[in-house]
Amino acid sequence: MKFDREARTRAVALTMGDPDLGRYLAQRYGCAGCHTIPGVPGAQGKVGPTLQGFAARVYIGGVATNSPDSLIQWIENPRTIDPKTAMPATGISRAEARHVAAYLYTLR
Q1: Where does the Cytochrome c domain start and stop, copy by copy (predicted)?
Q2: What CA–CA distance (Å, rounded) separates 18 from 58?
């Protein structure tokens, strides 16, 4: 999947992550099991919301403002933001979460 150049530049600036690596990590850590994620093969999950258009969302998980720091924290350990969320901690590191966040911010 090719990224819109403007979206990619913005995502990298916001997160200091690599969207290409983030797409790979989203698949590796099982995000596709729960979410539909454009550009991630087999990502047709129906448990969590689709991540299409994620960059334009105001909230993460319905509780945190969609900011790079909150998103990285949410990806790494969502229960530190919302203890009642159904989203599990996957064991992803903070550095890896930064790359996944970069990928999500390319999704318009």
Answers
A1: 17-108
A2: 22
Determine the pLDDT at residue 68. 98
Alpha-helical (H) ranges within 16-93 are 19-28, 68-76
Distance of CA 66 to the CA centre of its chain: 11
Mind listing the domains of the chain with CATH numbers? 5-104 (1.10.760.10)
**DSSP H/E element including 59:** strand 59-60
| Digit-coded pLDDT (tens) for 62-71 | 999 999 999 9
Per-residue pLDDT tens digits for 33-52: 999 999 898 899 999 999 99
